[in-house]
Amino acid sequence: MQKLTKEEYLERIKINQSVSRIEFELDFEWKDIRIEFINIIANLRYADLSYANLSYTDLSYANLSSADLSSADLSYADLRSADLSSADLSSADLRSADLSYADLSSADLRSADLRYADLSSADLSSADLRSTDLRFVKGTFTFNFGVKLKVV
Q: Can you give the pTM of this predicted structure?
């Protein structure tokens, strides 16, 4: 199994090379890289993260606008205040994800699983919600035509 140094790991992230689909071992402590990692992932606009396993990942405040997250596992992910406008989240697993204050305007959420997700103050205006599982979602959020929906 390949061992990645902190620098090698960050370089793979910078050039959008997948680190979730290969086997490797980290040669550093996560706490040593957290801030640098957050600064890099803060801008993932247009990134291809389809089928990626991002469950439990902290992507709060990240720019994921127009990103391809189709069929990605984002269950339990922290997506607070993330920009997911025009993102492809079709068939994504967003169960129990925190999407509070997220911008999901014009996002493709067809067949996505949002059960138990927190959509408090999220913007879903013009989002495609066909066949989206919204059972047990929580929060007050805006969707098409500025209509606010409060789920209790």
A: 0.72
